[in-house]
Amino acid sequence: MLNERSERAEGLTHGAWFIVVAGALTCIGLMIVASGSASLQRPLLGSEFLKTTFGRQCVFVAAGTGVMMLTAKAVGPWLLASRDRLRAAAWIGVVAAVVSLVSVKIFGDVTRGSQRWLKFSLGGFDIGFQPSELAKPVLIGFLALFLTRDGVDARSLRKTFIPVLGMIFCGGLLIGLEDLGTAALTCLVACLMVWIGGCSYRHLIALGVVSVLGLAALIWFEPYRMDRLWAHQNLWNDPQGKGYQGVQSLLTLGSGGWWGRGLGAGVQKYGYLPESRTDFVFAVLCEELGFVGGAVVVALFIAFIWLGVGAMRTARTGVETLLAFGLTALIGFQALINIAVVTVWIPTTGIPLPFISAGGSNYLVFSAMVGMLAAIGTRSAMNEVAVPNEISEES
Amino acid sequence: MTQGTSRFAAVRRRTGVWVLTGLMALLLSTAGRLAYVLKTDGERLAGLAERQQFKRIVLPARRGSIFDDRGRMLAGTRRVPDAFVDARLLFNLIESEHPDEGAREAAFRDWCDQVAVRLNLPGAKVAELIRQHSASSYVVLKRELDESEAAAILNLDDAFSRAVGVTPASARVYPLGSSMAHVVGFVGREGRGLEGIERRFDEMLRGTDGERRTTCTVSRGSLDLRLDGARDPADGRHVVLTTDAEIQRIVEEQLASAVEKFSAESAVGVVMDPRTGDVLALACVPTYDPNEPAGSPTAARRNRAITDPIEPGSCFKPFVGALALQEGFVSSRESINCHHGQHFFGARRVRDTHPQGYLDLKGIIVHSSNIGIGTIATRMPKEAMERFVRSFGFGAPTGIELPGESGGIVKPSSMWSGYSTVSHSFGQELAVTPLQLVTALCAMVNGGELPAPRIVRGVLNADGSVVEWSEGMNVVRRVLREDVASLFGEEILPAVVEDVQEGNLKSQKYTSLGKTGTAQVPYPNRPGYEPGAYVGSFLGAGPVGDARLAVIVMVRKPNPSKGYYGRTVAGPAVKAILEQSLEYLGVPPDRESKVGVRLTDLGG
User: Fold this and answer.
1) Nearest CA distance, B30 vs chain A (angstrom)
2) What pLDDT sits at residue A199?
3) What is this model's ipTM?
4) Could you say which of B75, B84, B100, B583 has the lowest number of CB atoms within 10 Å?
5) How distant is the Cα of B163 from the closest Cα of chain A, in angstroms?
């Protein structure tokens, strides 16, 4: 506990550090997205600014920052203060997630073979909303609550494990219909939460086996996923076809080398590397800022997880502990998978890099998650040593 | 504030910390993975990326011109634009402009029609061309646009005009058309010289293309100019020939009229300056137009003056006679029995067309007696005869700056039969090129020095400054003593023209000398001669005493019923060439007095 105290003595609360790290990642992301939005056809800052990826990202970052601060300072503490409020919020979230996940299957736009987006237009500003992004934190929040119910033994098969399994299965299925990568990620984090939440190891092993089988089945029945796996195995056999994305990602990394070509000087973003502003933005970052830039980003994510560890260790309640763990793990795993995909370590899955990839709904959701983590961090700090930290926060 | 604490113990907090620590380790390992990729494969990947991001823009060098000795342009390069379409871009533009597919086809056709009108092409052809190469970003619609067409394309301004453009291209032009085609040669579609000077000096004429390197987007748009490897084009050098387009015209005219008059298969003519070895004209008839080389058969493009050796026949006698005299195998006054037109050398019977009794060396040459020259030859060892032949340059290429020169065929004397020395003496059993013959004649009329023939006067830089220039004679060797040379050049050979009444070849204005030759054409692929197939040749030079020009004309396969003797079929052409060319060169006539006298006589 002494560690946290000395950290806090630097002047920022533990919660505030979450926002600082997320903010740093966001700034790097904005820079790369701005660079990636450069076009030979029109100036970046022009009348159509809000139609460029960068312009849109600016709007999302502005909105996201608002959401983050609001969650950190007001909504988060207010919710955390009462388990009933948290429960109500979780239920609202569940209903919203299920409704949007179902409706995306019915009304959603098809992009590159996947039906993932609900599109809205807000006074001419198009917003694409990806329901799976919402479903991830909702499932985590719900699990955190469910695993810490009053008077229920977390080791119970009937009272805890079976219902939890059902939740994960339903959530995974709903998300998986739309986006297998996100589903796998969510299920993984959910299972870890069940473990951390105190379930019996015997049940957990059974769950692990079932999850792996389910995942295999999903891959087996959706041929394009097999293609992705195949492409990963034989990347260089078909560099212009199935291996194109992976090969271009590697070329982008190689093009940057250790020190990078300089911010804005990347070339692969000009049409060579698909998804260069979203799922593969990390490659563009490495092309422009080199291994050094990539390492800085990785270090920031590690710092973020470190903060999550701190929040978890000092959390006042079980639900906060589990929430801190789940949200941190979700962000951390997403970063891990994204970077592993970009460096062609694992097959391509459509997982954006938190805070850095351009994208509307996922940035807003991440902002809310960071706000929540900040709120948890701040609350635990207040609990630990009340008065001195109030003062340092003011200064 | 107390609701969660009751279940607090159940949460495996420490396990969670370990899991998150593991996650941090995994994240750290992605940085390791990145480093691993860069370390093990980084250079190859960077190279591959570089290769796809890199674009070379070639800045073509302008091909040098070819001039004759007086600066007349024989070959030049015109900058003419090509019109091209970026078909890929065009279809992309149409697609983005017209979301529904039905409208695209109509828009495409409309646009093709618009472009076609500006290029004076049928619209359907443009559409077809673009469709055929729909994946290409460079479809040439029309080459060698004129100015108005190029302007019309550049002024096109609609939604798709970005897809069409005009690039500078070069067209090789030969202002004199077929004249001197065999010397100048021509250039193929890709800008490589394929024949003649164009081929021999291709590298020099072509220059070095310049280059710009740019980084480009996936749609090949240039992002920035790279400084490494940027190079300006170095325009090609100009080549100046020793030939004179006017003398060439005269020769071509005479050859053509000889071919026509005697219904011959072809004719070859070469004019040289004996004082320097400069080739002033080199012509083959029939000829071809280098502007349209594909429009003529390959045979017409052969430069037969240097590529096709033939038996020289009687033209060869003076060279043997002169060296025999110089080396003492015969004296100039000696009378040799010519056996009245028929004599056996061993088992071989040799005949003369004009039977004679006793003749001296001059008589043998003037009357072209095979028996006479053969008798002199019997006195020589084989080796001496071979040496004579080779010392005049036969059997080896002259080294003229043209591609494909043959050295002729001279067998080594070790392979000769007992009769070979005799047959060599009147120009059989060996083959020589017309150029070799006229070069050898130069040695006879310039005082005895064998010149190296030259057809390239010099090379100029693109800006006109001189790189190389050569004048004067390059002497290969002295072949004849001056007294022997002047005996032949000023007495014996002039007599062939002056003293023989039959088939008068005397010019009204200039004294001249010469030697006739009539050879039979051997079968191309079996021993023996084609019946009725002759090559009539005439070697000539003038004026006597200070020869300015040496000429050979060979007429191949004239219709025998119209004449085939060298004197008949080639003699008049040589006479006309000498007369007209000397006049053109401003050489004062050396027979004017006679003409003058005659006019006075007439007047009186």
Assistant:
1) 6
2) 83
3) 0.88
4) B100
5) 15
Alpha-carbon dihedral angle through residues A13, A17, A20, A22, given to the nearest 10 degrees:
-140
Flag if B37 and A328 touch (Cβ within 8 Å): no
Chain A residues close to B20, C-beta within 8 Å: 305, 308-309, 312, 325, 328-329, 332
Work out the number of other CB atoms within 10 angstroms of the CB of residue A327: 27
Chain A's closest residue to B218, CA to CA, is A271
Cα separation, B287 vs B301, whole angstroms: 7
Q: What is the pLDDT of residue B329?
A: 93
| Chain A partners within 8 Å of B22 (Cβ) | none
Is the Cβ pair B12, A198 closer than 8 Å? yes
The encoded tokens of residue A176 equal 């998986």
d(CA A181, CA A215): 10
**Strand arrangement, sheet containing B529-542:** B278-285, B266-273, B549-556, B529-542, B513-522
B603, pLDDT greater than 80 = no
Task: List CB contacts (< 8 A) between A268 and chain B.
Answer: 49, 53
CATH 3.90.1310.10 domain span(s) along chain B: 59-241
Q: How far is B291 from chain A (nearest CA, A)?
A: 44
pLDDT reading at B552 higher than 90: yes
Q: Does the beta-carbon distance from A83 to B37 stay under 8 Å?
A: no
Residue B556 has pLDDT above 80, yes or no: yes
- A254 and B12: CB-CB below 8 Å? no
User: What average pLDDT does chain B have?
Assistant: 88
Q: Using alpha carbons, select from B572, B575, B550 the residue that is nearest to residue B437.
A: B550
CA distance A356 to A278: 8
Given an 8 Å threshold on Cβ–Cβ distance, is B223 in contact with A270?
yes
pLDDT digits 0-9 by tens, B391-442: 999 999 999 999 999 999 999 999 998 889 999 999 988 999 999 999 999 9
What pLDDT does B478 receive? 94
Contact A325 B4 (CB under 8 A): no
- Measured between beta carbons, which residues in chain B are less than 8 angstroms from residue A272? 49, 52-53, 217-218
* Mean pLDDT, rounded, for A203-232: 75
C-alpha distance from residue A266 to each of B162, B223, B319 (Å): 26, 11, 78
| Dist. CA B363–CA B380, nearest whole Å | 20
CATH class of domain segment(s) B245-291+307-456+478-603: alpha beta
pLDDT digits (tens, 9 = 90+) for B48-82: 888 888 877 788 888 999 999 999 999 998 888 88
* pTM of the complete model: 0.68
The Cα A12–Cα A392 span in angstroms is: 7
**For chain A, what are the domain ranges?**
2-394
**Residue A109 CB-half CA count within 13 A:** 11
Shortest CA gap A148–chain B (Å): 6
CATH architecture group of domain B59-241 = Alpha-Beta Complex (3.90)
**Which residues in A lie closer than 8 A to residue B4 (C-beta atoms)?**
83, 148, 316-320
Better pLDDT: B160 or B598: B160
Is the CB of A298 less than 8 angstroms away from the CB of B4?
no
Peptide bond into B543 cis (omega under 30): yes
Q: CA–CA separation, A161 vs B17, rounded Å?
A: 22
Provide Rg for chain B, Cα atoms.
Answer: 37
* Closest in A251, A309, A332 to B27, CB measured: A332
Which pLDDT value is given to residue B263?
Answer: 92
pLDDT tens-digit readout, B327-340: 999 998 899 999 88
Shortest alpha-carbon distance between residue B75 and chain A (Å): 44
Percent of chain A with pLDDT over 90: 30
| Range from A52-56, A229-233, B110-114 carrying the lowest mean pLDDT | A229-233
Whether residue B37 and residue A343 make contact (CB cut-off 8 A), yes or no, is yes
